[in-house]
Amino acid sequence: MQFSELKAQVKSIGFGELRSDDDNYLEVVIVKDKAGEVCRKLEEFFGPPVWPPENELPSEIEEAIKKFGGIGAGQTLYFSHQPNNIVFAMLWPWGDGRQITVKIVQQ
Q1: What is the pLDDT along the chain (107 residues), one digit of tens a residue?
Q2: How far apart are CA 46 and CA 80, in angstroms?
Q3: Closest C-alpha to 48, from 78, 80, 12, 18
Q4: Which residues of 22-44 are buried (b: 16+ CB within 10 A; e: fewer)?
Q5: Predicted pLDDT of residue 55
Q6: What does the pLDDT read at residue 83?
Q7: Half-sphere exposure of residue 40, counting CA atoms within 13 Å on the CB side?
Q8: How far apart are CA 78 and CA 71, in angstroms?
Q9: Contact, 94 vs 85, CB < 8 A?
C-alpha cells in the first residue's frame, strides 16, 4: 500500500473535521467510535504501534515527530522508516473523551 492509498482509506472511514490534506500530510479529527477502524487501517500499513513503548523511543523517531507535536501519555504512534522515506501516524485523544486528532505524515 502506498502513502496516498493509506490517506484515502482513512478519509473514507469518515471524520468530523478535515484540518489538512496535502501530498505528504493528513490531519483529521474523528469521533472515538471510528478509532478502531482507523487503527486497523494504520496497522495494515505500519504493523503494531511503537507508542506506548516498552522502552524509550529511538532518537530518530523522536526527531522525526518533534515538529508535529511529539507524542505523550494516552496517545498512539505508528512509525515506519524505509530507505529515503519516514512515515508515521499519531492519534491524540481529546480531553472530552469523544474526539481524536489523527495526523499521518510522510517525510
Answers
A1: 799 999 999 999 988 999 999 999 999 999 999 999 999 999 999 999 998 777 788 888 999 999 999 998 899 999 998 788 899 999 999 999 999 999 999 99
A2: 6
A3: 78
A4: eeebbbbebeeebbeebbebbee
A5: 74
A6: 81
A7: 6
A8: 11
A9: no
d(CA 96, CA 57): 27
Q: Residues 65, 25, 23, CA angle at the centre, nearest 5°?
A: 140
| Residue whose grid cell is 481529546 | 94
Q: Residue written as cell 487501517?
A: 41
Show me where the domains of the chain are located: 3-106
State how far the Cα of 77 lies from the Cα of 52, in Å rounded to an integer. Answer: 7
Joined together, the cell numbers standing for residue 64 give: 522525526
